[in-house]
């Protein structure tokens, strides 16, 4: 009898319902992201239907506890969202689409801010493929003297969309604070002769960390600056820090690039249009190492001068550039720094965010 009970318990546990507690929609320039908030992990399937274009999302053993309204469907591929039950225990969500989409879906485990999530990314299907980006100097006649091109600085506002980053004193969101700082920095650079700013993220949407470095490379960036604003459990933590890639992070990244043929074919395009795919393995390794070492050296130098300037306006956490294996700092050919501008969890530093 005990065994029967135990088995019954396992069965009832395994068909425990997942509650869909919320639904959020974010639009990025090249895709849209739909996020379901769940109280536990649930199995799901997605499949598209045509004429008219729809996307069906089936979530097993789940209940919808939220209303499907106030979603920003005025723009983007989703026209409207409907739902119904499927079988006895399933939930079916139907997206009515303006255009055919290429969907990708995956579950996300809980993190500090959210419980279980199911993410559905929609990419336009009929997008004509653009020819591969060829590295070429960008010359802005207004600002540069003949033969010299502007220095392109990629500014990466951390987090975005689904990922708010740190939530600071008074409920202030890191993603918003760093976006404002990024825009101010871009506006400042616009006024400087010989510089050109490129915002990696232009609105409130999420971009993967690797994708951020890819976008920097696509825009031929000479420097990459990622902007963050920390939070810590103690409200006393304060000060700014600047990070460059760690030596260990650089070595493991070099190995990764060499192992990836697709990567190595466009490597170092930003600096001298030097491709590694026709080089002997040993030579490719040496070239990559030289490029990484040079980038890291420049990152440390750049970081130190940023720290020195920031020392005048903000309290510094440390006087020297710190090093860590942050993914956004791993471009082998673009000097990159990550700036933790301050602690949002510190009331007096959070108060400096008058945006
Ligand atoms: Zn951050």
Give, in order, the helices and strands: HEEEEEEEEEEHEHEEHHHHEEH
Based on Cα principal axes, name the global outline.
globular
Number of helical stretches of at least 4 residues: 8
- The chain-level mean pLDDT equals 82
Biggest beta sheet attributes: 6 strands, mixed
Strand residues, percent = 25-35%
CATH superfamily of the largest domain: Zn-dependent exopeptidases
| CATH fold call of the largest domain | Aminopeptidase
Structural class: alpha/beta
Q: Whole-Å distance between the termini?
A: 66 Å
Oligomeric grouping of the chains: single chain
Question: Which small-molecule species are bound to the chains here?
Answer: zinc ion
Q: How much helicity do the residues have?
A: 25-40%
Integer count of domains? 2
Folded structure, characterized:
- Helices cover 27% and strands 29% of the residues.
- By secondary structure, it is an alpha/beta fold.
- The protein has 2 domains: 109 residues, Immunoglobulin-like; 200 residues, Aminopeptidase (3-Layer(aba) Sandwich).
- The strands form 3 sheets. It has a 6-stranded mixed sheet, sandwiched between helices. A 5-stranded mixed sheet has the order 5-1-2-9-8, with no helix packed on it.
- Strand 3 and strand 4 form a beta hairpin.
- It is globular.
- It starts with a helix and ends in a 5-residue tail after the last helix.
- Bound molecules: zinc ion.
- Zinc ion binds next to loops.
């Amino acid at each position: 009898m005990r065994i029967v009970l135990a088995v019954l318990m396992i069965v009832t546990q395994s068909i425990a319902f997942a509650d869909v507690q919320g639904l959020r929609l974010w639009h990025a320039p090249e895709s849209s992201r739909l996020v379901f908030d769940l109280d536990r992990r649930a199995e799901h399937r997605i499949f598209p239907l045509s004429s008219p274009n729809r996307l069906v999302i089936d979530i097993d053993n789940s209940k919808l506890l939220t209303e499907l309204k106030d979603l920003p469907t005025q723009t983007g591929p989703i026209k409207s969202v409907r739902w119904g039950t499927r079988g006895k225990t399933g939930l079916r969500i139907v997206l009515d689409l303006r255009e055919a989409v290429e969907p990708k879906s995956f579950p996300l485990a809980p993190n500090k801010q959210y419980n279980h999530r199911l993410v559905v990314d929609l990419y336009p299907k009929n997008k004509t493929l653009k020819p591969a980006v060829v590295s070429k100097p960008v010359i802005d006649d207004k600002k540069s003297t003949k033969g010299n091109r502007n220095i392109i600085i990629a500014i990466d506002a951390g987090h975005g969309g689904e990922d708010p980053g740190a939530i600071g004193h008074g409920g202030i969101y890191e993603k918003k604070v760093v976006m404002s700082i990024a825009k101010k920095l871009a506006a400042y650079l616009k006024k400087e002769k010989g510089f050109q700013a490129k915002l990696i993220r232009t609105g409130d949407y999420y971009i993967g960390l690797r994708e951020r470095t890819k976008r920097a490379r696509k825009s031929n960036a000479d420097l990459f600056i990622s902007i963050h604003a920390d939070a810590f459990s103690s409200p006393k933590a304060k000060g700014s820090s600047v990070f460059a890639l760690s030596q260990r992070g650089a070595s493991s990244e070099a190995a990764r690039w060499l192992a990836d043929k697709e990567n190595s074919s466009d490597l170092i395009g930003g600096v001298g249009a030097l491709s590694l795919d026709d080089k002997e393995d040993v030579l490719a390794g040496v070239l990559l190492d030289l490029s990484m070492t040079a980038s890291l050296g420049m990152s440390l130098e750049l970081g130190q001068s940023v720290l020195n300037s920031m020392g005048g306006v903000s309290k510094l956490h440390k006087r020297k550039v710190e090093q860590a294996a942050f993914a956004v700092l791993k471009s082998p050919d673009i000097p990159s720094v990550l700036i933790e501008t301050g602690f949002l969890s510190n009331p007096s530093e959070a108060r400096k965010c008058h945006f």
